[in-house]
Design brief:
Layout: H1 19-26, H2 30-41, H3 45-52, H4 56-63, H5 72-81, H6 86-91, H7 123-128, H8 141-150, H9 157-173, H10 179-186, H11 195-211, H12 217-235, H13 240-263, H14 267-284, H15 288-299, H16 303-314, H17 323-339, H18 344-358, H19 361-364, H20 373-387, H21 390-402, H22 410-426, H23 430-447, H24 450-463, H25 469-485
């Protein structure tokens, strides 16, 4: 007969669905979680301790509220030891573990006749793939953003698909059919403003920024504007202890809303959100929000105008700190300098690398979560392509491609493939250039990425006048896609 501590831990599956358990997971209250496991599964403190690697005394401290878990690796150990199912792991703020055995057909790539992806895909198809016609469940983008914003690890497309699939399954089985009603309950009722609500809204803003890496603007815009409306309502009469945080969160959300509105060809709304972000920067005491706003504006410009937008953004940087934003702006400056043929771009890249070495992108700002070694390599590739440095292009291209997640990163892929295509066309390798340009176009269409289509603008120019049949066919596809999506060549 095995000793009590050696017996395997078996927890009823329905325990993870109990409202009090979901509350404990959402609040990351491990003591409450342990108490519920003991109460409903009949598992002793000793067996819990053996399963998660704690002494019985330590488990008792957590259950009595004398100690709290704060370290990510400890949350992971507890989740693994108690064999939390993926929905429970995600409520705890951890990435799901089961990444096999679940098939999610990729969203169809629009036909190469230039038909906009928005006319072929709805939000649900973009997030979780094709559905049966009688499946009426909607993806709750607001809740998806909140969960993604709470995850401590990098969120790739596969993780996002699993989260969205879990939300869809929950919507199908939940007696609360309306996703807005579910959200209201998650926030403990309308107009409730407390620490948990503020943290919820902050996490949701981060989540929207993270989802922007993978999803088209059309899939996020409505949910993001609803999020901003909620922030606006709560700001009225908010206690001073919450007002600055809410204002900062609103500013971070407004900068993204402005970018998405521009991507959706809504310039008046984009300008309105710019004004909101400026007011929020002032109200919150976080002028760096303006740095993000001007950086996004640089994407909407070309040449000297784009360079000036980046340099205006840099004026809002603090003397020290915020090194992830600093590295991003230096990379943008290098990219625009290179487009103008200015060799100072190389020095800006070096400065960007120094800032990146000091940075903590995952902890600094909602908009800095995207910056990693792969994105830095993509910036290097872009700069060296524009400067015509073939040797550096080869090295940077290999590094950029090696960093890309095969199941996601489609917006980044569109840019990387476009830059590699431009480099190959510059040296006269037409077949390779066409191959990479076709991959870039497919990735850009998949996500309706204006960013990717802008990089393909230089490819379009390089293809003009080519006699190769594949090059001429690709040029026609690029032109028709640009016209359909309303993008102009760079």
């Amino acid at each position: 007969m095995p000793a009590d501590g050696a017996e395997p831990v078996v927890i009823p599956a329905d325990l993870w669905q109990r409202p009090e358990m979901r509350t404990a997971l959402t609040n990351r209250d491990i003591g409450h979680l342990f108490r519920l496991v003991r109460q409903y599964a009949g598992i002793s403190q000793t067996r819990i301790g053996v399963a998660v690697g704690f002494s019985q005394g330590k488990v008792s401290e957590y259950m009595q509220g004398k100690a709290q878990v704060t370290a990510l690796d400890v949350f992971e150990r507890i989740a693994d030891g108690l064999v939390l199912p993926d929905p429970a792991r995600m409520l705890l703020g951890l990435a799901p573990r089961i990444l096999t055995g679940v098939t999610h057909p990729p969203p169809p790539i629009p036909a190469r006749d230039g038909t906009p992806a928005s006319s072929l895909l709805n939000v649900e198809q973009v997030v979780i793939g094709s559905r049966q016609p009688n499946d009426a469940c909607d993806v709750d983008v607001l809740t998806l953003a909140w969960i993604v914003g709470r995850l401590d690890a990098h969120v790739n497309r596969r993780t996002m698909l699993l989260i969205a699939a879990g939300l869809t399954a929950e919507a199908a089985s939940s007696p609360i059919a309306d996703p807005w009603e579910r959200l209201a309950r998650a926030l403990a009722g309308p107009r409730v403003l407390d620490e948990d609500t503020v943290e919820h809204l902050e996490a949701r803003t981060i989540g929207f920024h993270r989802l922007e890496y993978e999803l088209p603007a059309s899939a996020l815009y409505q949910g993001l504007t609803s999020h901003l409306n909620e922030l606006s309502t709560l700001l009225h009469g908010a206690p001073e202890r919450f007002r600055r945080r809410l204002a900062a969160t609103a500013g971070e959300a407004a900068t993204l809303a402005s970018w998405l509105a521009w991507d959706l060809k809504r310039p008046a709304q984009s300008a309105a959100f710019d004004r909101v972000s400026a007011l929020a920067a002032q109200e919150s005491g976080h002028p760096i929000i303006q740095a993000c706003t001007h950086a996004y504006r640089s994407y909407a410009s070309e040449g000297r105008a784009a360079l000036e937008a980046v340099r205006r953004a840099q004026q809002f940087l603090p003397a020290q700190g915020d090194d992830a934003t600093r590295a991003w702006l230096l990379c943008l400056e290098a990219e625009h300098l290179a487009s103008l043929g200015d060799r100072q771009a190389v020095e800006r890249l070096r400065q960007a690398e120094e800032a990146f070495d000091r940075a903590r992108p995952h902890r600094e700002r909602a908009w800095t979560r995207f910056l990693d070694t792969g994105r830095m390599a993509a910036f290097q590739l872009s700069v060296h392509v524009r400067l015509g440095d073939e040797r550096q292009v080869t090295a940077a291209g290999q590094q950029a491609l090696s960093s890309v997640d095969g199941d996601g990163d489609h917006k980044r892929l569109a840019v990387i493939y476009a830059d590699i295509a431009q480099a190959q066309l510059q040296i006269g390798d037409i077949p390779t250039g066409v191959t990479y340009a076709r991959r870039a176009l497919d990735a850009a269409q998949r996500t309706e990425s204006t960013w990717g289509l802008q990089h393909l603008g230089n490819v379009e120019k390089a293809l003009t006048g080519q006699r190769d049949p594949a090059a001429r066919e690709l040029l026609g596809d690029l032109i028709s896609t640009r016209r359909a999506l309303g993008s102009s060549p760079a």
